[in-house]
Amino acid sequence: IPAWILVLVLGSAVCGAAAQFCGYPVEGRMRFEREGDVVCAFEVGLADLPEEHEKGLMNCTGMREGFGLLFVYPGAARHTFWMKDTILPLAIVFLTTEGVVSSIRYGEPYSTRGIPSGRPVGMVLEIHRNDADCLEVGDRAFLTRHP
Predict the structure, then answer these.
(1) Of 45, 60, 69, 77, which is the most exposed, with the fewest CB atoms less than 10 Å away?
(2) Pairing mode, if any, of strands 115-116 and 37-47?
(3) CA–CA distance from 144 to each of 35, 45, 79, 130 (Å)?
């Protein structure tokens, strides 16, 4: 088998696997900046429908580093999350409608304790807890949609 065919086949398999996670198609890349410098970025699936807001990452058994689920709301409001039926330890990043990180909270697997945004937010990003070390309150997020 020529090497270029092997690369093409293996590359397609990797790209195909990355095209979805936890039942959500990867639809964009969200980068976070602080004082003009990029501090981290995540490939994101979008949860913009009410039924997707309810499901979130429930029953998701694994999430690779650098991936997340972005909840998009029609306007700013206070939101409370919980971890019922959520297997993974998550960081819940609350963002203003302008994309500024307003708070970062941590959820324990299977907990029914409410995790409030504290103030009105327009977006929420759920990422694996281990991926949150790069983020701080005040960081600014920029979403680029994949074609």
Answers:
(1) 77
(2) unpaired
(3) 19, 12, 24, 23
Contact between 64 and 20 under an 8 Å Cβ cutoff? The reply is: no
Percent of the chain exceeding pLDDT 90 equals: 71
State which amino acid sits at residue 138: G
Residue at 77: amino acid letter:
A
Cα 106 from Cα 115, distance rounded (Å): 8
Concatenated DSSP letters for 63-90? Answer: --TTEEEEEEEEEEE--EE--TT--S-E
For residue range 69-125, list pLDDT tens digits in order: 999 999 999 999 999 999 999 999 999 999 999 999 999 999 999 999 999 999 999
Pairing between β-strand 37-47 and β-strand 20-21 as defined by DSSP bridges: unpaired
Kind plus residue range of the DSSP H or E element containing 46: strand 37-47
